[in-house]
Amino acid sequence: MNPQENAELLAALMRQEELLKQLVAAINKPKLGLHSEAGNCKIYCNRQHGGLWYTLNGEPSDVPQTALTGYLKELRFENTERRKKETCKLLITIQADRTYILESGYDTHFSKSLLTAIATLTPEQLYSPITLQPTPGTTDESVLFCRVWVGSELVMASYNEETNWREVSKQAIAVTKAALEMAF
Fold this sequence. Notes:
By secondary structure, the protein is of the alpha+beta class. The chain has one domain. Helices cover 30% and strands 33% of the residues. The chain is built from three helices and nine strands, in the order αββββββαβββα. The strands form two sheets. The chain has a seven-stranded mixed beta sheet with strand order 1-6-5-4-7-8-9, sandwiched between helices. Strands 2-3 form a two-stranded antiparallel sheet. A hairpin with a 2-residue loop joins strand 4 (68-82) and strand 5 (85-95). The two termini are 31 Å apart.
């Protein structure tokens, strides 16, 4: 390449970088005007109230949608009190049209299937939106699994009694953090 071509290429790359910065800024802007989406939306992932997942606004309310698509921003465990007992929950933060925080017991099939799937991904795969799909167990009415999709591909990941959950959790959290750090 001659110096003129190099300068043109550099100018084009700088314009592209500026457009990318503008796009990221536009995505991160809050929704303006009147809407009903202030704050986070917390979704409880269990079949306790008859559906696959639900929200609490005083009373439990089924979420009729069967999947949530967005960017995985965080996986974390939190100790909390439920029904006057200390318990550990997995909190999954998804950025979509608003921020969704999914809550599931740390040792449920929902959490285990989600963590196992995320642990198999690369940080680059998390640059794209993922889809979480709660899936009922076939033989037990109380069981809820989580299917994870990257684009149109179902992430196939299995687990069993021998699975080291501490390591799977560490790997899933590490992949999620690495994707977030590489994005900015």
